[in-house]
Amino acid sequence: MKKAKRRPKLIEAFIPVIFLTALISINVFIFGDDALDGSNQLVLILSAAVAAIVAIRLGHKWETLHKGIVKSIGSAMAAILILLLIGSLAGTWLLSGIVPSMIYYGLQILNPTIFLVAACIVSAIVSLATGSSWSTVATLGVALLGIGRTLGIPEGIIGGAIISGAYFGDKMSPLSDTTNLAPAMAGTDLFTHIRYMALTTVPSITIALIIFMFIGLFRSQDGAIDDIEPVLASIDGTFRVTPWLFLVPALVITLIVRKVPALPALLAGTLAGALFAIIFQPHIIQEVSEMDDRFHVAAYIAVMKAMYADISVTTDHAMVNSLLETGGMRGMLNTVWLIICAMVFGGVMESSGLLHRITESVIKLAHNTGSLVASTAGTCMFFNVTASDQYLSIVVPGRMFADTYRERDLKPQNLSRTLEDSGTVTSVLVPWNTCGATQATVLGVPTLTFLPYAFFNIISPFMTVFYAYMNIRIARFKKGENKNKKPARV
């Protein structure tokens, strides 16, 4: 006799989420920063298994759950391809000297009279160029902290300026994994997400910079910034630094503005970076390829390695060496692995109706667009606190709310923006979150010491909620445009 499907109780729907949260917390405690090397991915698979057990007990067939998993993974394939291509772009932009040049010119704006503002801007530029707040904080951030201390500025304020800039750049960089993950979960594309996110992110960082400016005006800053000179000399002595290199980023930006799809735009940027590497950095080509003769063969080897493998450029400065590393496509595989496992979990939760049941209880509190966005932001921060992982604070709420945004004729970029405005940036404010713990350890500044001064990170979730309640630049589907709209839930 065929078993009738039963509607899950709220506690039943939460069982996989509770299991996921508990196991992730154990992972972070045991593995620390290495939790993303595979253990968190396995937790997602195990949590999917728990969800499947609950679903089968409710009367669902495994075939239905399997189809849900395949469909869920299929929906993320575009994001996975973009991630792999971004890995190759990061490689050729390092090989060509584009990223080192961004760092070089960014450091030039440091000025003792506006140190906090300059530290925030430089951190933003480097993070935007590298796509990583972690590497920015661990390298340039440490140097800026030492400089600020010599100027007599409290370490909490310096840390707040560095964190604010680093997370702004990470959030807005197409090279960032979270910037790719958020639109993948929401169902939009990368460049639409970045353009739409700028509407709340630019005002947030502007307010933060104004606050840092006022703090700086009331402080005496008589020190000298001598520590930056060796960094500049090291970059200049290793690469051919020239403004001509910025033609490649300009090309990509032009393609983005002209709404060229992400894959061809990124491929164009990757190939242009490879061409500029051959033209401007022949000595780097030889170093990476480990060949002194047959330049055409060396160029082919170096470009290919930059696109798919780990490469690094060695200078006479340890901090610069840490910045001049990239993993190519291979470096993106952990994030690809995480996305696939997350989509397995999301596929079971969706096809079984468990995610619908959880979302239903939250949506009851959201009577308008403002409260819906506020609920999403609150859920993201909840997972940052409980699951201790910024990726899960994007993945789980993204799957929870995607259908609801469409049902209310809200374009998916509203959701992807909210995920980053509240998930990505607040992760570093939680002491036991992988981000908060890592940055505190790297800087040597406790999380709760820099938290009050990480103005950008604090302002961002409030800004996205404010925009929603005020109905400012909320993207909506026009009549008949929402092809994937599902029937409204009762």
Question: How is this structure best described in words?
Answer:
The chain is mostly helical. The chain has one domain (73-490). The protein is built from 24 helices and two strands. A two-stranded antiparallel sheet has the order 1-2. The chain is globular and about 70 Å long.
In short:
With 490 residues, the protein is mainly alpha-helical. The chain is built from 24 helices and two strands. The mean pLDDT is 85.
Mean of residue pLDDT values: 85
Amino-to-carboxy terminus distance = 30 Å
How many H/I helical runs?
Answer: 24
Strand content: under 5%
The helicity comes to over 70%
Query: What are the segments in which pLDDT stays under 50 over at least 5 consecutive residues?
Result: none
Overall form: globular
